[in-house]
Amino acid sequence: MGSYVPPGVRFVPSFLCSRPRVHEFIREMYERVLTNQQLHSALTSKSFTLPVFKEVIARWQTYMQTHNGWSTVFLENHDMARSVSRYLPLKPDSPTELEARGAKLLAMLCCTLSGTIFVYQGQEIGMSSVPTTWGIDMFRDVACLNHYKEYVSENFLIHHTFRSFLRILQKRTTTLNPHPDMSDILVDICKKSRDNARTPVQWSSEKYAGFIPTSENDIQPWIPVNPNYPTCNVEQQHNDTNSVLYFWKNLIKLRKEHETLIEDQNIEYVSEDQESEGKSGIDDTQRMADYLLSNLSLDKSESIDLRSFRIRLLPLEGRVYVSSRRMNATSRPKTTSLMAALEKLGFGPCHHMRTVVKNGDPNEPRTLQKIGQGIGSLEDIHTIFDSYGSILDYPAVCYFEELYKAYPDAKYILTTRDPAQWESSMRSTIFKAVKEYENATNRTPFFDALTDWFCTEMIGRYHRGRLYADPQGELLAHNERVKTMIPVDKLLVYQVSEGWEPLVKFLGV
């Protein structure tokens, strides 16, 4: 094969080949890497134990953490066997549901490690390696084909030890046996071949797994499709909430919601035996702890003690436990954080100034204005708020007394903030938006109504005209009015930085 040299560029081999100290570097590699090492062909399978697997993960995660690095996280690529076949003790006759459970376990492992995740095509649906029943004619990987031919060839015997020579000679004496037993070589090839990752992606249960349009009957994939495509394909898993694909989506969502789960991670194993694994991420300063528990046994359940609980895992089952303290760390002292928390706890949808703007109905601020003026009714309150599971922030806070009369059995949360921070937030959001709109030329009926509500109700009536002059004093006055009005058993005085525990306890969920 020739090489391309761009016009005007001169190739100078002396800059690249036979450089000084090359022999020194080769000698060092031989002494430090090759000497006294048992070398394996790239296509010779090598078993490993779970403690070794765990040690490798912990070593790299810890190294990156202590050296301010950021790793890549992957279990598959185009040169490797599929992870469910490579890392799980599955058998050819293992049930489909067991294979799917194992694929979810490995997904948990990936999504709870620190670093950038690379999900290889087909991994998100749990595609497996090729069947062990494949013959050599099914493979396309040149390395596999050459490996197979070399073992058949008598000339290859001279490259092996005497023990290997006897083993190979017994099976592959080509003069007497033109069709030698190659089953052990095929087993290794099925386990290690790059073709495992190169079979067509399984889109559907149609012919060729939907990889080729059915109308093009004269076209075949370059390599056979994995025969399990009727039960493992994208189309089947797309709307199945219990599928591997759906599980991956939920895990990635969890990973995004709790960034500290992956950013500050020191690994400590709570179990060192062969079949069960417990991994915790621990922050010594805040005593946060997240746990990934997994049982890599194929045929028996496993029990793991976690703090004061004893957790029993099914074969190839994994679970992720995220500490409530860890969840606190992702919160911010904003109403949007509390809004997200309430909706996550099942009190959605949440009424907020954002929903008022999103609805864009000028009648809503006008109706609220009537309520504030005393010409509205409780029925108006129910009309606006009954379709919501929770109510938060302006404009509703200006009507907490009316809300208490309309919903006497509801629970009320008074969020407290640093007054200076609250003032800064108000001036950079609501105050600024109203001023800009007052000077705008492209006015709308809705924003006219909302601006009028802001000036007459929020500024004028509820905050007595003092919000611009003394926002911090008005915040404290509002807090005292709420504490006076709402009974103690129905009120939680709460800071978002306190996290989930007091909120969950108060709401009874």
What's the domain count?
A: 3
The proportion of strand residues reads 5-15%
Largest sheet: 4 strands, antiparallel
Please tell me the CATH architecture of the largest domain by its name. 3-Layer(aba) Sandwich
Low-confidence spans: 154-171, 280-288, 325-334
Mean pLDDT: 79
CATH superfamily of the largest domain: P-loop containing nucleotide triphosphate hydrolases
Class derived from helix and strand content: alpha/beta
How do the strands of the widest beta sheet line up side by side?
3-4-5-8
- Give the end-to-end Cα distance, rounded to a whole number of Å: 69 Å
User: Count the strands?
Assistant: 12
Report on this model:
This protein is of the alpha/beta class and 509 residues long. The protein has three domains: 71-237, TIM Barrel, CATH 3.20.20; 244-328, Immunoglobulin-like (Sandwich); 335-507, P-loop containing nucleotide triphosphate hydrolases (Rossmann fold, 3-Layer(aba) Sandwich). Helices cover 42% and strands 10% of the residues. It has helices at residues 22-34, 50-66, 83-86, 96-111, 142-152, 162-172, 183-192, 234-237, 244-257, 260-263, 324-329, 335-344, 353-359, 363-372, 378-385, 400-406, 419-428, 430-438, 445-462, 471-485, 500-507; strands at 72-73, 116-117, 267-271, 276-283, 288-295, 302-306, 309-313, 318-321, 350-351, 390-391, 412-415, 491-494. Helix 14 (363-372) runs antiparallel to helix 15 (378-385) and helix 17 crosses helix 20 (471-485). It starts with 21 loop residues before the first helix and ends with a helix. Residues 42-263 form the Glycosyl hydrolase family 13 catalytic domain. InterPro entries: GH, GH13_cat_dom, P-loop_NTPase, Sulfotransfer_4.
